[in-house]
Amino acid sequence: MTFIVSGRLWRNSMIMQDEQTGSYWSHITGAALLGELKGTQLRSLTAVQTDWEKWYGANPDTKVLKKEAEIRSSSYEGYFNDPRRTGIFRARYLLDRLPGKELVHGLHLGVHALAVTDALMEKKPFLRTRLNNIPIVLIRTNADGVRAFEAGEHRLYPAADEKYLRDEATGSLWKAATGRCVDGRLRGSALKEIPVTVAYWFAWSNFYPNTLVLD
Question: What is the pTM of this model?
């Protein structure tokens, strides 16, 4: 299925349109909102936001989508730089919780959602919390951005190398980029990863107004 940006907004966020059926989709939730495929849900894949040097260093076999022409500027530059431009549809009580252009790392389990500010992840690159009463960990590394995993019964903590986690009970070593155990008694097992969405607060909170906030 091929998607294009439709130019329409839903909850202050652009929606996509597929070329095959003309259905409209939310890129935040992955759900078809209107059209022939309304009600269909796309499967979420994990992704990270990092720079090319760090990504390529860790993933040298990466395929690159080549641009047709060099991009020298963005028509949205003024929008990104203006803290007052926070969408068309205003929800004042949401903006009272955090500044509209505050960058957050959002995740959800069903209807339960969590937003962690980028500023907090800068100060504390490893966090333990709970979502829907499920223990989760968030970790930020230079190469792999912010990742989130269901911790289960593991008591995880950062290893000496920031790219890894250890669990308190067995001393097993887990790779932060994948959640897979690479050394120790639990080698070969894997943590369940939770997709993380990088978004402005005003956009995330429009989809998940009752989200928990860590800042």
Answer: 0.84
